[in-house]
Amino acid sequence: MQAQGLPTVEDPSRPSDGILETIQNYSYDVVLLVALLVISTMFIGVCYHGYVSYSEIQTGRKTWGEFGLTVAVGAVLLVIAIWLLNAATDIL
Predict the structure, then answer these.
(1) Where are the alpha helices (DSSP H) in the chain?
(2) CB–CB of 43/85 below 8 Å?
(3) Do residues 46 and 78 lie in contact, with contact meaning Cβ atoms separated by under 8 Å?
(4) Is this structure's pTM higher than 0.85?
């Protein structure tokens, strides 16, 4: 019996037959969400570090080459992290 006005429960992203598979698929969706949060946090961290590096250029403590290196290394780390988390979720 469904109560009036309540939304229906969304199915997991992967189809399933039994209750155990449904629980596993919901946990898979949670793992994907956590991976997305990890990547988002890393992106914010790289942006913040790039901003701090840019502000240090204005004060004369860093050069444009160091700023470019900071941004390039941050971008490479983001790509590697996205690739690794994508490979890890494929294992599930």
Answers:
(1) 19-59, 64-91
(2) no
(3) yes
(4) no
CB 39 within 8 A of CB 82: yes
Alpha carbon 28 to its chain's center: 15
Return the number of other C-beta atoms located less than 10 Å from residue 74's C-beta. Answer: 19
Which amino acid makes up residue 81? A
Distance, CA of 16 to CA of 31 (rounded, Å): 17
DSSP state of 18: S
CA distance 74 to 86: 18
State the pLDDT confidence band at 2, using cuts at 50, 70 and 90.
low
Cβ–Cβ < 8 Å for 32, 89: yes
59 φ, ψ (degrees, to nearest 5):
-90, -5
Distance CA 92, CA 88 (A): 7
Residue pair 72/46 in contact by the 8 Å Cβ criterion:
no
